[in-house]
Amino acid sequence: MTAASPAPAGTTAPPAAPAADAGLLIPISRSAGPLRTVVLHPAGGGLGPYLGLAAALARYGPVSGIRAPGLLPGEEPDDSVPGMTARYLRLIDRLESPVGLLLGWSLGGLLAWELAGRLAARGERPRVVMLDSPALPPAHDGRDGRDRAALRERVIDSAGTTGHDTELVVRTTDAHLRALTRHTVRGGYDHPALLLSCAAEPDAAAHLAHWRTVAPGLRTVSVPCGHFDLLTPPRLRTTTGLVTDFLRDTGPAGPAPASPIRPAEEHP
C-alpha cells in the first residue's frame, strides 16, 4: 500500500511502520465508495465488537480495523495512549487513500480522537466518532481487588479476542487499562466529531463535562444504556442510526440506511 498523502510543507512525516506491525491493520470490507473508515480497537485489543456496525459503514466505502499488538506470541502490548497513537498513525499511512472517518468504542474512540489531532497537524480532517470514550482517567483506583478483576473480565468478554491465548489477552487488557488510567484528553479538534455517551454509567457527567471543555464543538448524544451495550443488540440499531445520521449531516458519504428512533437527549 502507498501512503495516504505526503506531509505538508514544514511538517515531518512519521517514520514508516515496522514490518512486524503490518498485521495489525486488518481489512474488514473492501467495498467501493467515497468514505474510507478505520475502526480502532477497544481495551482488550480485538475488532469483533465492530462487525455489526462495520456492515453499515461498508455501504459508504472500504473499512479497515487496527487491532492491538500483544495478542499474538512475540508481540508486546502498548500501555500508553501516545505510544498507540504514534504506532497507528504509521499504519494509517499504509492505506491507499486518506481516512475519512475514524471510529472507536471506549479506548478506541480515545485513540480515534488523538489520531485525528495528529492528522490535522498534517492538513487532513477526518470525521471522528467516539462510542462512550473517556476524557478522564476512569476511577479504577477506587475499586477493590474484586471490582477490578470483575471489570477486567467484562472488558475481556467484550473485546472480540475469541481464539487468542488467554494469558496474552489478559496481559494486553491490563496494559490498556493502565493506559486509560494515565491519560487525560487535553487537545481539541475542530472538524466534525460525535460522542455517544452512555447515560447509565456513573461517571458519564464528569466525562461529558471535560469533553465539552476541551472540544466545545463536539456533537454529543446521551444514550440510555450502559457502556457494554452500545454495540450489542438491541442497542446496536440505535448506535448505527446515530452514526449514519452524523455522516449524512456532516458531508457526502453515500447512501445511508434508515435511522432508528433517537434517544431522548441530544446536544448539538
UniProtKB/TrEMBL annotation:
<dbReference type="InterPro" id="IPR029058">
    <property type="entry name" value="AB_hydrolase_fold"/>
</dbReference>
<dbReference type="InterPro" id="IPR020802">
    <property type="entry name" value="TesA-like"/>
</dbReference>
<dbReference type="InterPro" id="IPR001031">
    <property type="entry name" value="Thioesterase"/>
</dbReference>
<dbReference type="Pfam" id="PF00975">
    <property type="entry name" value="Thioesterase"/>
</dbReference>
<protein>
    <submittedName>
        <fullName>Thioesterase domain-containing protein</fullName>
    </submittedName>
</protein>
<feature type="domain" description="Thioesterase TesA-like">
    <location>
        <begin position="38"/>
        <end position="247"/>
    </location>
</feature>
<feature type="region of interest" description="Disordered">
    <location>
        <begin position="248"/>
        <end position="268"/>
    </location>
</feature>
